[in-house]
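Sample pair:
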Amino acid sequence: MSARTDESYGQRGLSLADHFGVWLSRRAIRQRLPKRSDLEVLELGCGYHATHLVALKPFLKRGIGVDFQIEPKLRELQGYTFHEGAIEDTLPKLEGEQLDVVMLISVLEHLSEPQVILQTAWRLLKPSGILLINVPTWLGKTFLEFSAFRLGLSPKVEMDDHKMYYNKRSLWPLLVRAGFKPSQIRLRYYKLGLNLLAIATKP
């Protein structure tokens, strides 16, 4: 996701640090998906290349991606639908969907109203559907800002758009208020504590 409303993450390319982070996230996502080949998956803030969503193709019956701009050639992929625009503007168009998985990978920290988005994600999920979230932690804030502002290894515009950093104590109540039961929420730190991964299952 990007701070600019006319640009998606990855549209200008990715640094080596970003490529490594994407690879780690992709591994974590695949490990936690249901072991099926007929999943219906929505990724909010999928990025210009929809890297995570496209990588899941062997597991998908249907993939839906949302971001400000999408690489044109992705529209040729069979089994995928892409929506260009802000997440907040696009979600009402998806209200009738019933999905197996909703993903918010490095997106929640950019949103002004994260609670509203999480509640909508809960409504879009089928019973036993999974919400997957990756967010930077407060420890990650230090690393990310140093990488972007001092070293220039990550896009400065991305860091300037961050509205929140998270830990287990701050993300857990958002998920509960969205409708997820405490017994169905799993939170764990990874990437050396720089990121927090949440897996929440709808009752």
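The longest helix spans residues 16-32.
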